[in-house]
Amino acid sequence: MELLIFVLLAYLLFSITFKRKDNDNDIEVLDHKSTTCIKGMLSIFVLIHNLGLDYLQTLSPDGDFTGKLWIVKRVVEYIGGIAVGVFFFLSAYGILTSYKKNGNKFLIKLFFKNTIKLWLIAVSINLLEYLAFFKNAFERKDAILRILNLDLFNHYNRMNRHGWFIATLLALYIVFIIIYFLSSLLKTEKKLKIASYIMASVPIGFFVFTLIKDNGGMYSREVWCFSLGIIYGLYKEKINVFLKKHYNLFFILSIVAYFIGLILQEETASGALCLFFVMASFKYDFKSPVSLFIGKISLGIYLFLHFSTIVLSSAFQTNVWYWMLINSGFIFMLSVILYFVVLVIEKLISKIINFKENKV
User: Fold this and answer.
1) How far is CA 151 from the centre of its chain?
2) Tens-level pLDDT at each residue, the chain (360 residues)
3) Alpha-carbon distances of 36 from 44, 66, 167, 297, rounded to whole Å
4) Helical ranges in 184-319 per DSSP H
């Protein structure tokens, strides 16, 4: 019952994020503010997934779930991966849309403001975990690889078990920068399409690899949604016109496919939820202030999940329900602190750069 309440609260946040558009004929969808709100909702689903799995373990240590409990288990198991799949989709769509507008200038921003910043934040939290919990657990070489988030292809059980997502996203960002920079050197009008087709094939390659080989948790199969985001970003205008024309069909299809995916395979549900958000955005804006703020701190929610769980592991033995609430609150607190610390550092760096430029 407690876990069900947790899930219902998440879906309540999901529902209040929707705001009916004044103009249904507007085919411009998924702007920056809307995608940030969606990412806020997704981070809550990831939170429920990770805390919920620990909770379910207390209900049935042997993993034997039947009846209604099986349905709850299925939702909790899949909701995290599904959310990450949509996040990959939105990330790919966002960076390609920005590249189409700003060209190679955006690649410089993507490298320094996104990739390097994300890597430094992940390294800082990995170092914190190492010093706090794993100082004597690894040999020096293994510890360095884990702290620097360089164990993507090493099949390690990471210190931060959620580090696979950051490592995969960083790898995709770097590949994106390389492919689109090299494509800009081509003397053909189709260079954007060529680069996008190559980029879309990379996550598909990851996906196929996970199907044929045990990757030790290197990355989830939902990475294929990054390819969807690239293709959608490339042909957005044409796709939107087509989907708008057949709105009812694809809206219903996205919902049906989502629930089928919950029963059969979560990768299907991830793709269906990507389609659902596109369809819903034709008629609704995602403008909730709550979801917007959670979206801004969502990186911290991903990164502090493991750290918080270890810190509060003793409380888990007393009352699981209280543990979930306290853990969620602690994760949010750390995420807010991280958000404002990064914000202050960025402003200081910006002031230093502007001061030096004015001095010159």
Assistant:
1) 19
2) 545 555 555 555 555 555 666 665 555 678 888 888 888 888 888 888 888 777 666 666 565 655 556 666 767 777 888 888 999 999 999 999 999 999 999 999 999 888 998 888 888 888 888 888 888 777 887 788 788 877 665 544 667 777 778 888 888 999 999 999 999 998 888 999 999 999 999 988 877 776 666 554 445 678 889 999 999 999 999 999 899 999 999 999 999 998 888 777 778 888 999 999 999 888 887 777 888 888 899 989 988 888 888 888 766 656 667 777 888 889 999 999 999 998 888 888 777 766 555 554
3) 13, 37, 21, 10
4) 191-212, 224-234, 236-245, 247-263, 266-283, 289-296, 298-311
The neighbouring-strand residues paired with 284 are: 20
Beta-carbon count within 10 A of 209 CB: 14
Tokens of 345: 């550092």
- Residue in the block written with tokens 């493991």: 306
**H or E element in which residue 19 lies:** strand 18-20
What φ, ψ does residue 303 adopt, rounded to 5°?
-75, -30
**Phi/psi at 348 (5° precision):** -65, -45
The backbone torsions φ and ψ at residue 19, rounded to the nearest 5 degrees and listed phi first, read -135, 125
Cα separations in angstroms, 276 against 38, 83, 90, 199, 273: 12, 13, 13, 24, 5
What type of residue is 29?
V
According to DSSP, residue 342 is labeled H
Give the residue carrying structure tokens 């369809």: 279
Specify which residues 19 forms β-bridges with: 285
Per DSSP, the three-state class of 329 is helix
4-20 as b/e, with b when 16 or more CB fall inside 10 Å? eebbeebeebbeebbee
